[in-house]
Write a structure and sequence with these properties.
This protein is about 55% helix and about 20% strand. The chain is an alpha+beta fold and about 300 residues long. It folds into two domains: about 5-95 and about 205-305, no CATH class; about 105-195, no CATH class. A six-stranded antiparallel sheet has the order 1-2-3-4-5-6, with no helix packed on it. The radius of gyration is 30 Å and the shape is elongated. Component of the lipopolysaccharide transport and assembly complex. The LptBFG transporter is composed of two ATP-binding proteins (LptB) and two transmembrane proteins (LptF and LptG).
């Protein structure tokens, strides 16, 4: 069916927010823990905790509890909401391109059909209604002759089968050719034309639209890379929570800002390298999961040592 512009924009925005969530969820957890633990270190709260017998394992457990909730949201996003949103976005875009409906009508402009056989001008558009219509069919198909239709108003309605009906009210149709001087002039109160509906379907080979079961059963390089990348996005939440505990150690003499700078730089370098690996995973010999895992584990081992 035809899709209005507000609905189309909201659906595309929903798909964009899904992509942003893949990056924001690990980052929000990382920054939240980094700032909280950094403040506790600055005010010597953690020093007092250690003096009372609480080890660093308590901080790790607290970070893992928060990572568990954040990881659950990330898992729902990348394993269910992400593929559904990507598939729905492609269907909306394909539907809008194949069956534009009112979205393709611009007021105050001459518009040419995609095949170049017709030209339309509409003075004003209000919802599914329009006023002062001019339609010229210069090269009609078959034995039909060129025609010009002018009407005071019109509307576009939707049928149950998806086809659209254009109804023009109170107008005149001029049919004929200037060379033969054979014209047929018809005045009408209602002039209807049916616009067929073109069925659209999603790409079955698009790995971003596949659910987890389909990805698991598909043994292509792109499917394997996409499957590993989804697991990596969920694992990143827990890895970031582990990284932030040693990275949040603050020297009270240096201040929080200076102490947080290495952690932020390390996070940015890690994220950029992961995005780089994700783009070349299908062509490389090692998968996204192994590449990103090696990178993050090496950074974590370097910081903890």
């Amino acid at each position: 069916m035809a899709i209005s512009q507000p609905i189309w924009c909201s659906r595309c925005w929903g798909s964009a927010s899904r992509r942003w969530a893949q990056l924001i969820l690990p980052l929000s957890l990382f920054l939240g823990l980094l700032m909280t633990l950094g403040k506790l270190y600055t005010e010597s709260e953690i020093t007092v905790m250690h003096a009372c017998g609480l080890s660093k394992a308590v901080l790790i457990k607290a970070a893992m509890i928060l990572a568990l909730f954040t990881g659950a949201v990330a898992a729902v996003n990348v394993m269910w909401a992400g593929p559904w949103s990507s598939r729905h976005q492609d269907e909306v875009l394909a539907e809008a391109k194949a069956n534009p409906g009112m979205a393709a009508l611009a007021q105050g402009q001459f518009q040419q059909a995609s095949d170049g056989n017709a030209v339309m001008f509409i003075e004003s558009v209000n919802g599914n209604r329009f006023h002062d219509v001019f339609l010229a069919q210069l090269r009609p198909k078959g034995n039909a002759r060129p025609s010009v239709v002018v009407a005071d108003s019109g509307e576009l309605s939707q049928q149950k089968d998806g086809s659209q009906v254009v109804t023009l009210n109170k107008g005149t149709r001029f049919e004929g050719t200037a060379m033969l001087r054979d014209f047929r002039i018809t005045d009408f109160n209602n002039y209807q034309a049916i616009i067929g509906h073109q069925a659209v379907s999603a790409d079955p080979d698009d790995t971003e639209q596949m659910d987890m079961r389909t990805l698991w059963k598909t043994h292509t390089d792109r499917a394997r890379a996409e499957l590993h990348w989804r697991f990596t996005l969920v694992a990143t939440v827990f890895i970031m929570a582990l990284m932030v505990v040693p990275l949040s150690v603050v020297n009270p003499r240096q201040g929080r800002v200076l102490s947080m700078l290495p952690a932020m730089l390390l996070y940015l370098v890690s994220s950029c390298c992961k995005r780089r690996l994700s783009r070349t995973a299908a062509k490389a010999k090692w998968t996204r999961l192994s590449g990103c895992g090696r990178l993050t584990c090496s950074i974590l081992r370097w910081r903890c040592c």
